[in-house]
Every structure is written in C-alpha cells, then in structure tokens.
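Let's practice the habit of predicting before peeking. Look at the sequence and jot down your guess about where helices and strands might fall. Then scroll down.
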Amino acid sequence: MNRLPTVFISHGAPTFALEPGRAGPALAALGRALPRPRAVLVVSPHWMSTVPLVGTASRPETVHDFGGFPAALYRLQYPVSGAPAEAQRAFDLLVAAGWSPRSDAQRGLDHGAWVPLMHLYPEADVPVFQVSLPARLDSASAWALGQALAPLADEGVLIVGSGSLTHNLYEFRAGDPREAAYAREFSDWVREAVLQRDDERLLHTLSRAPHAQRAHPTTEHFLPLLVAAGAAAPQRAVSVIEGGIEHGVLAMDGYVFGAVESA
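Done guessing? Here is the structure:
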C-alpha cells in the first residue's frame, strides 16, 4: 500500500451524527475514495491528558460524552473493533520521539472520533484507536506530535485529527443561525494557508489569523489540524472537505493532506 493521506475533520456539534449537512456526504465520499486502511487513528480534543495516552481496547465503547441533546443521539452506537497492534506501534513511535506515552485499555471512543466516523466509515468495518491530546500542547508541539505518528501513514493507518475549524461555544449556545462574518473570514484565511502549503503561516494561525481569539477562545479544537498537517508527507497535495458553516458559527471544512487514489 502506498502512503495514506492524513485528514483533518471538523466534527462540529454532536448532532452532526444525525444532521450530516454538507460535511457528512463529503466524508462518506472520501471514505469510498480512500484505499481501505488497516486502522484509523483519531486524535480528538475530547480526550485530553497530561501525557499522550494510547487506547488499546479491542472493542472500544461508544462514549456519549455530552449532555442536553436529543435522546436519539444517546441511542447511537458505533460498534467498531479496536486496533491493539497498531496502537502498540503508535506507542513505540511516541517513545522513540521522546514523548512519555501510557496505554489505556479501558477508554472508549469519544464523540470527536465516532461521530465523524459514522459518516466516513458508516459500516464500522475499519478498526479504530485513539491517541489523546496532551493538555499542554501548543502549535509547535501539536505539529511535532503529528510528525512522531507520521510513519503510521506508510503502514496502512489513516491518521485523523478531529477538531473544529472554529469553536466558540458561547456563540454556538446563543443559537443565532445567521452566518457570522468572523467565522467565514477565519476559515478562509486557514484555507488559503493550507492550500498554499504555507506551513509557517499555518503554524502561526492562532496569533496571526483574523479573529483567531474569537474563533478559538481555547485552542484544543484547532490543534488537531496541526497534528494532521504535521503527520502529512512533505510536498503533499491538499484537498478540501467542503462543510460550510453550521449553526452560524461552526465552520465545518476539513482537509485531506495527500493525494486520494481509489483502491
């Protein structure tokens, strides 16, 4: 198998599982176009820890780690197998790169993993494991985390950073459905940096992009983009997962770093 692309997904609100919008069909199309991976590795802001934790469960549970949503959402299950062998390989790569990972055989899949995977691989037929997002990560160390995991892409593992291109929960809860101009301006700025493969600009998004503080009052939902970009091959092609803006303020675009060649 040739090297797999790496992917950044905006997983939006948990209701994305029930309301696919534009991004859901785009993810489904991507899942059909990609060569079938041995496993999927997801880094999500909904599993954070002091050091990287590697999920090694053979049958990870579907974790409904949210509250106040429709009852139908809590009945959803993503009955996927884990990937203990690939998780051990990720553990070893992190050790070799100077991180201090630990294994976690009990942790299930948080909604940052299973919600978008319901669109990407709706049959739950590709094994999945997670690596947690270290809580003290900044942009440079997020990129380095991706670089540490990058060899997995040569070994049939699809590396997915799952976050949100914009993530202002206060404004999301305000419930204004009108598209916020700042969300569009911020996401357009990021798109230009990604498509131009301007890694230096992308690395400094949170300090240079317009409305960065408003788009990301906290950084954890942006950093998975840098993990995915850091794991990508140099001089990669980049394509956009078109997601639009949902709920007025949640930019749902994602990115595929690397050429997509159907199996």
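How did you do? The mean pLDDT is 95.
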